[in-house]
Amino acid sequence: METLWTDKKRTLFGLPLSFTRYSLTDERIFVNTGFFTSVENEVRLYRILDIKLIRTLGQKMLGLGTIHICSADKNMGDFDIKNIKNPKEVKELISEKVEIQRKANRVTNREMMSDFDHESDEYDYSE
Questions:
Q1: SS3 state of residue 18
Q2: What phi-psi label fits residue 64: left (phi over 0), alpha (psi between -120 and 50 degrees) or beta?
Q3: 94 near 48, Cβ under 8 Å?
Q4: How far is CA 15 from the centre of its chain?
Q5: Has this prediction a pTM greater than 0.85?
């Protein structure tokens, strides 16, 4: 299992002085936390539903960002990859790998849409 990306959560002044480590493979994202008691969580990429990049002013000044991931994983649910370097590139890498895994596993994300969700003058309700 080849690691495509790895980083640590960065704290004061963008220094990696944290016990939270993130890594990405072709199939999973791993979040390792803790020093005395270590916990390793993983999310299969095909379970990721949405990815959002968040950058505060302080993060922008330090070249950092946070990636918010919405997933269908029961254990992790929605989670953040906090204060990492090159967040735009990492977000794009994750997004590419998610699409590859969704196609490989034949997973689809069906969004329910209807005309009733939005007010519209075009639809005649009297019919």
A1: coil
A2: beta
A3: yes
A4: 22
A5: no
